[in-house]
Amino acid sequence: MKKITQILEGKNLLSIFLTAGFPTVERTIEILTEIEDYGVDFVELGMPFSDPLADGETIQQSSAVAIRNGMTLATYFEVMKIVRKKTDLPVVYMGYLNQILQFGVEQFCRKCNEVNIECLIIPDLPLEVYEREFKTIFEKHELLISFLVTPTTSDERILKIEELTTGFMYVVSSSSITGRRGKITKKQRAHYEKIKAMKLNKPTMIGFGIHDKKSYELACQYANGAIIGSEFIRYVAKENAAYFLTTLKA
Amino acid sequence: MSYTIDENGYYGSYGGAYIPEMLYRNISQLQDNYLKIINSDAFQKEYKQLLADYAGRPSPLYHARRLSDKYGGKIYLKREDLNHTGSHKINNTIGQILVAKHMNKKRIIAETGAGQHGVATATVSALMGLECVVYMGALDVKRQAPNVARMKMLGAKVITAHSGSQTLKDATNEAIRDWINNPEDTYYLIGSVVGPHPYPDMVARFQSIISEEMQQQLMEKEGAPDPDRILACIGGGSNAAGAFYHYLDNKKVQLLAAEGAGKGITSGESAATSILGSDGIIHGSKTLLMQTSDGQITEPYSLSAGLDYPGIGPLHAHLIKEKRLHVYPITDIEALEAAMELTTLEGIIPALESAHALAILPKLEIRKDEILVINLSGRGEKDMDAYQKYFTYLKKHPKDELEKSFLFVP
Questions:
Q1: pLDDT tens for residues A95-119?
Q2: What's the CATH number of domain B56-86+208-398, 3.40.50.300, 3.40.640.10, 3.40.50.1100, 3.40.50.2300?
Q3: Most buried pick, A110, B25, B127, B308, via CB within 10 A?
C-alpha cells in the first residue's frame, strides 16, 4: 500500500474532511470504504469536539450529531479497525488537543499505529508546545504532523513551520473559520501566490472555503492539492456526497 | 511556591496558549507587548485617572455590622457593586480598552455571561468611540434582559449564541470565532481570568486594584493591611483574582471562594468545577474543567449566569492544586437565601454571583476577633426577575419543600 508521504508528492490531490460519526457511525464506515473510488487521495477523519473553536456552523453541527451518536475516541479507533479490513485509504487524524490528553498521548499514538493512521492535524496544538512536549513522542511512534499556515502567519514563522512539518503544510485559504462559501478573492489568491513563491520544501494542501470544482482547481495551481470539508459534509447531510465528488473532477 | 506566570504563561502546570494558528499573530503581539504597554507611566496615569473619575474608585470597604453580629467576627464588604456599571468588571474593561487603543484597534468584541462584562465593555467602547460587538448565550439573553437593554442603549451590537448550553462557554466560543474571522482591526476584550496567555495575567493585573485598595483601607480602619480571610465568588474568577492578588504570597490570609453548585454537586446540574473538574483545555488555556471521560466539555448549570461556566481561570486551578485556595460549592438556593439575608440585614441587594460568596458565611466557624473581607462583586438589579420569582415561591410554599423543588427557577 501507498504511504501518505508518497501520495503527498503528487499533484492535484483531493482530500476530504469528514466528521467521524456523522450522520451515523455506519455511514462514516461506508463513506470511508467507498470514497477512494471517487478520486479522493486521502481523508481527514475529524474527531468531533464539543467546542471546536476554529470551525464554522457546518462542522459544529455535524460534531454535535456525531457526539450524540456516541462517537468517542475509542469508537473512532473501532471504526478505523473496521475500515482497515476493507481499504488502505490513507487517513489523517484531525481533532482538538483536549481529547488526546484525556485519552492519554501514549495510548493515542499506539492506537493510531494499530489502525495505520500516519499523520495528525491538531489545530489547537501550537508549534511551540508541540516542540516542547509532543515532538519526541510523536516521532517515537512515527506519527507525522501537519501544521496550519494562515494569511496572518509571518514569513519567518512559515519557515519554522516548514522545518517542523513532517506531513504537509495546511494552507488556510483565508482568515476565517471553516465553511465559508464565497468566491475566492484577490486577497486569497495573493496569499496562494505568496506561499507558492516561497518554494517550500514540504507538501502543501490548501483548505478552508474550498467548496466546488472551481475553487478546488484554483487551489491545485498553487499547492499539491486541496482539502474540502464543510461543503462535503453539507452534501453528506443531503445524502448526495457521491454526486458532489463526481462534480469535482468532472 | 510562586503564584505568578512563568515565561510561557503558565501558573505551575496550568495556563499557556492553546490556540489555533489563526490567532497566533494577535495573541503573540499581545503577549509581547502587554506588560510594556500597561507598565508605562502614561498608561498608568490614564488608567488610574479613569478608575477614579469615571468608575468611581476607590470602592468603599464597608463594615457590615448587622451581618457581623449574626456570624461573628468583623465582616467587611468590598463594595465593587458601587462602581460605575455595577460591578468589578469596569476595572478590567478600562484597562483593556486602553490597551486596544494603544494597539490601534478599531473594533471591540467581548463575551458575556451575566451581562456585567458586556455592559462594562459597551460602556468603555462608547467612551472611546469604538465599535462594540458582544456575544451572549441565548439563555443568558433571556435571564439577564436588563443588561441586554443597557448594552444596546450603549451602542453595542449583541449577538446571541445558540450553540451548546447557550451560556458563557458558548458566547466565548463565538467571540473567539469572530476574532479568527476579523484578525486585522479587532481586539478581543476578555472579561475574566480565562483564555490564552496573556489574558489571565492581564485581567488579574487590572483587577488587582481591588486588593491594593483593601490593603490601604484595612490599614486605615484596622491599623494592619491583612484580613484573616477573603471571600469571593468564582465563575472564570476575575473578581476573586483581584481580591486575592496582593495577598497571594501572604499565607496568613486565608483565601476562600464560592463556585456555582447549581442544584447540587451530585445533581448533574452544576458548575462546581473545583470538585467536578479535571485537567484539560478550554478556551485556549490548560486548566480545571468539567468534561466527560472522553474529553467533551460538559454543559454547566448555575442559576447565576456569571458562574455558569465549566472551567475556571488557570491561576485558580493552580491555587486549588497548591491548596492555597479553598472552594465552597454553593447551590442556587443557598445563594438566593444569602442575597435575601444581605438585603434584609444591610439594605444591599447583591448580584446573584456575589450572593454565592456571601453564602460561604454560614459554613464557617468564625472567631470573635477575626476580620473577613467579602468581595461584593456586583449589584443585584439585573437579577430582580430571579429574586422576585423566589419570593413568590417562598410565599406559597413552606421552606422545607424548597430544597426538593426548583419550580420557581426561571
A1: 999 999 999 999 999 999 999 999 9
A2: 3.40.50.1100
A3: B308
